[in-house]
Automatic annotation (TrEMBL):
Subcellular location: Cytoplasm
Residues annotated as binding S-adenosyl-L-methionine 2: 71-73, 117-118, 178, 190, 215, 249
Residue positions binding [4Fe-4S] cluster: 65, 69, 72
This protein's name: Coproporphyrinogen-III oxidase
Species name: Acidithiobacillus caldus
Length: 461
């Protein structure tokens, strides 16, 4: 697959198409999961996954945070009581035992991710117990061959924690920065210095972490073009392997912490687009490749190489180089994904605790994919990962005639083509350089569930 062309920022096109839409970390998306799907259904899907024998991806959700960031939309528990980590880890271990009754432990773990919340909230002894439990219950890859990552808040990092995780096998690190301007940091209650960020990054590099990603957010209160340009210049100077540039979605009616943000201090939609345009230009000038959906990576990074090879995948943790793996997610709110189903754990900590204590898998809702779901998931995933879709790949995999099967969607696709978002040459649907920021709109054409429920999505840009 050829190297991707540069992203083109078309202000007029973006302004016309900047509407709300799903992020497609799954298809169907999580709001459509059914509460009729329970633990027995999940067990059936887990046991079916053993027959496929695909490798495993593990996700462990650590919900605790010491500090409340006002912009945050994650499922979290804010507390300074580090001792709360001990019973949580004990229950994570119990959840592993419950899963292992139905999952073949010889299936290799090719990917592992600690997310949250703040995974490094855990005390050293609790982290050691968690790492030991994972090692006992699952088959980890030797010699640093797995894609094992951890999210880090540099303000909540005990000395020696990065070394402990590296010795376990973690080789990827994601660190939240958001913005380095003191005024913006005060407005969102997330104060941390460039020196602290640089020190953690330097330590991770010295320990041999292979890929380091720094997360930024545009659209936060008190941001302007000059201040965010200064933040981006400082981050680019650190030369992280990956940079995530997220759009702040202000939805205070859904996320209570956002009610502490003064709406009058948010940048206008026009200013927000200017900040994004400036940022994309800076990142591309610095040599970063636009992977898609807010993610940029250096040309030699594994994400970039996977995209060029057509093997990039997208899941609940973002982009991944491991497409053919079943995701087992542990902890409150975590979402698992097999080839045929999704399953989400209880989002309330006490409810999750009660299910584990009753020796039950803590399933709140889920979804069994129909053949049509799997077809549309493939189409959406390839578009969002590759910016192109091969007609022959769809037809050989699913036994359908691509244009005929999507005849009802064709007028919408051709309208997007007329507006310059995509091209169709009879064999390949390709997202243009101008359409890449709006790829979610193309994916929405193939979403059979869109509009069936009243769901408030974030804006595309």
């Amino acid at each position: 697959m050829p190297a991707p062309e540069s992203l083109v920022f078309d202000t007029d096109l973006i302004a016309r198409y900047d509407r709300p839409g799903p992020r497609y970390t799954s298809y169907p998306t999580a709001p459509h999961f059914s509460p009729q799907f329970g633990a027995a259904d999940y067990i059936e899907q887990l046991e079916r996954s053993n027959d496929h024998g695909r490798p495993l991806s593990l996700y462990l959700h650590i919900p605790f945070c010491e500090h409340l960031c006002f912009y945050c939309a994650c499922t979290k528990v804010v507390t300074r009581h580090r001792e709360w980590g001990e019973p949580y880890v004990q229950r994570l271990e119990a959840e592993m035992r419950l899963l292992r009754r139905h999952v073949d432990g010889e299936r290799p773990v090719v990917q592992l991710h600690f997310g949250g919340g703040t995974p490094t909230f855990l005390r050293a002894a609790d982290m050691d117990r968690l790492l030991d439990a994972i090692d006992r219950h699952f088959r980890l890859l030797p010699e640093d061959r797995g894609e094992y990552g951890v999210e880090v808040d540099p303000r909540a990092l005990e000395p020696g924690m990065l070394a402990r995780l590296r010795a376990f096998g973690c080789n990827r690190l994601s660190m939240g920065v958001q913005d380095l301007d003191p005024e913006v940091q005060r407005a969102v209650h997330r104060e941390q210095s460039l020196d602290l960020v640089a020190a953690v990054l330097a330590e991770a590099r010295a320990l041999g972490y292979r890929s380091i990603s720094l997360d930024l957010i545009y659209g936060l209160p008190r941001q302007n073009r000059s201040s965010f340009a200064n933040t981006l210049d400082a981050i680019v100077a650190l030369r992280p392997d990956r940079i995530s540039l997220f759009n702040y979605a202000h939805l205070p009616e859904r996320f209570a912490p956002q009610r502490r943000i003064a709406e009058a201090e948010l940048p206008s939609p026009a200013l927000k687009l200017d900040i994004l345009s400036d940022s994309i230009a800076r990142l591309q000038a610095a040599g970063y490749v636009y992977i898609g959906m807010d993610h940029f990576a250096l040309p030699e990074d594994e994400l970039t190489l996977a995209q060029r090879a057509g093997t990039l995948y997208r899941n609940f943790q973002g982009y991944s180089t491991h497409a053919e793996a079943d995701l087992l997610a542990l902890g409150m709110s975590a979402i698992s994904a097999t080839a045929t189903a999704y399953s989400q754990n209880h989002k309330d900590l006490e409810t999750w605790n009660a299910a584990i204590d009753a020796h039950k898998l803590p399933v709140e809702r889920g979804w069994v994919l129909s053949p049509e779901d799997r077809l549309r998931r493939f189409v959406i995933t390839r578009l969002i990962c590759d910016f192109r879709l091969s007609r022959s790949a769809v037809e050989e995999r699913f036994g359908v005639d691509f244009p005929r099967h999507f005849a009802a969607e064709w007028p919408q696709l051709m309208a997007l083509a007329d507006d310059g978002l995509l091209t169709w040459d009879g064999s390949t649907l390709t997202i243009t350089a101008r359409g890449r920021l709006l790829v979610r709109h193309v994916c929405m054409v193939f979403d059979a569930y869109l509009g069936q429920k009243s769901v408030r999505y974030s804006r595309v840009i």
